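REQUEST ID: PR-0412
SUBMITTED BY: lab tech R.K.
PRIORITY: routine
TASK: structure prediction, single protein chain
INPUT:
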Amino acid sequence: MGKRELKQIQPFDDIFYRHCYYNPLLTALRYYGKDVTPFIVNDVNVYKIKKKNESKCNVQFYSRYVGVKKDDEILSELGIEVKNHLYTTDIITTIIQSINEDIPLIIYADAYYCKHYELFYKNSHHKHFMLVFGYDEELNIFKIVDVNNEHISVKNIKFETLKTAYEGYYKFLQMKSDDVNYSQVILKENCSNKLNHNYISVFRSNMLKNKELMLNNTEVLKHINSNLNEILAEESGIDKNINELLESFFFIIVIKKTEKYRIQKLFGDEFFLVDPLDKIIKEWEKIKIKIIKYNSIRNIKVKTMFNHINKIYVLESYYNKELFNYIEKIK
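STATUS: complete
OUTPUT:
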């Protein structure tokens, strides 16, 4: 009976980044002693409005990361290879062999089969990712880094539970026969680091390249205001759209927290633009809380929702103006 654990694994739990694939990936980068900052400075974070033919629901707004470089390019510059694999009928043996070679794996799974995903367990099929970095054959458990909403933690998972969740992904969530089912995160040998470590310079360049996109955030907020007005004007508007509303607000808040994290990482906690970002996050959280309260007690003051949006508009306008004033002076 074997037992092994990659001891240097420390979950990347500074923030919830993008979606549940990336915290396992960034955890693997740290395992190899790599800096995750190249990913953080690569993104331009924007509000978006869906085109009419893009959405089947009434909620038309969302937020997204616009990457300047592709992930593979950043990984290559870091000296990392993400080796993707198709479905295997013996995922347990595959994982054990990889861990024995000191290589962590990202497993594609179906949250429907995992009890600790209360929202999806035995309720709905949902794509999920976990980083496996250890095993104990006597106890029949794997050690994983797991992401559940914004909570990133180390967990034990039974061999059979992981196998069932992995096979569930293959049966219910895989779109094409050649889709990835699991990935090994591998450190390349004799690879020189090609990264520009002047991250402020990289951030400045990326922001200036996408200045128009960033400044358009305030215009998109007007459309968000209008879309919310349409939804709230209908008596059952929130009931019909509660899940989509909460999902949109969740990812807006996550992206704004990433933006705040990046500014703090580059310029320090006392940088003057940390405070307006913090206020923007709090206003979005107030809107989300109001929606949740409405869903439970059927009481919401519509006017206050738009007061929050108006405050966000003022704060975003200030933030974008001052950010570009500041970075344009950096040489």
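NOTES: The chain has two domains: 3-34+80-187, 199-327.
REVIEWED BY: pending
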